[in-house]
Every structure is written in C-alpha cells, then in structure tokens.
Amino acid sequence: MLEILLLALALAADAFAASIGLGSTHKSDVKPQFIKMALLIGLYFGVAQGVMPLIGYALGSTMLGWFAEGASWVAFVILVALGIKMLYESRSVNDDDTRINVSHKTLLSLAIATSLDAMAAGFTLNLLAVNAYVACLIIALTTAVLSVLGAYIGRQSGTWLGSWAEALGGLVLIAIGVNMVV
Does pTM top 0.85 for this prediction? Predict the structure, then answer.
C-alpha cells in the first residue's frame, strides 16, 4: 500500500505543479471565484489522473502475457523514463505571471497533458499486489486534494514551489522503478 501512496504522490506532482501555476495567476480573484476555480482544477486533474492509470492497467494486463518474464524490467524503464522526464521538466518551470484563462477546455487540456505519464505508470499496477481500482481511486483522490492545495499555494506564494514538487515526483518514480527490479 505504501508503493501506491508513493506512486499517487509522484503522479500527482505534475498536476500539483500546474495548479500552483494556475493559482499564482489568479491572486486577484475574489474568494468565491477562486474557490470555484480551485475545486474545478481538483476535479479535472483528479479524474484524469484516476482514469489514465486504469487505461494503462487494462492495456498492460492484455500485454503482460506476451512478455511476462521481462515485465518488471519494462516497468522499470517506464518509471525511470517518466522520472527523468519530470526531473527535466522541473528545471523549465515558467515564472511568468501572465493570467491564464481557466476554462473547461483549458482544464481538460491540462488534465490530459499532466496525466499521460499516469497511463504509462498504470501498466506497472499489473506487477504490484494491489487492487488496481483501489489504486486508481487513491491516485485520483490524492491528485484532486493536492491540486486544490496547489492552487491555494500558488495564490499565496507564486510558482517557485511547483518545480520542486515536480522534481521530487520524478525522484519518487525513479525509486519505485528501481525497487521493482531489485
């Protein structure tokens, strides 16, 4: 269960970083308007992060028989590659305070973009002794809560914390990947 919680935190790092950025550009919003926006961010990011690993799990379970012996190495490569990608992206976070229009289209685009790595990570759920549906629910709830929190943090502090969160998420994914082959 600890692996799932760590995976959920790592996968939520992208959404957390994005929500910090969104929150930082809406510092001047009135409180009810900001609360609505923060809850929408949590809803969109949480649902996307919960559904994508389920898709990856389904794809992985159909393909697992094809390469059962090397499955842990495939999971290792996926998680380490995602971790390295997140570490790289954490170095390029934009500190621009340009206001971002938080429309449903924008949120859907960001939710899908930040959850594509969760689909790849969902493949690894086949190799863990966990219920994939419960794991996806934990991932979704973790992401939703951290996204709402990220919007509030962004409103108060700006974008500087987002890059650190993404870097930490990358390191956690690499650690989980290494743990799968050790």
Answer: no
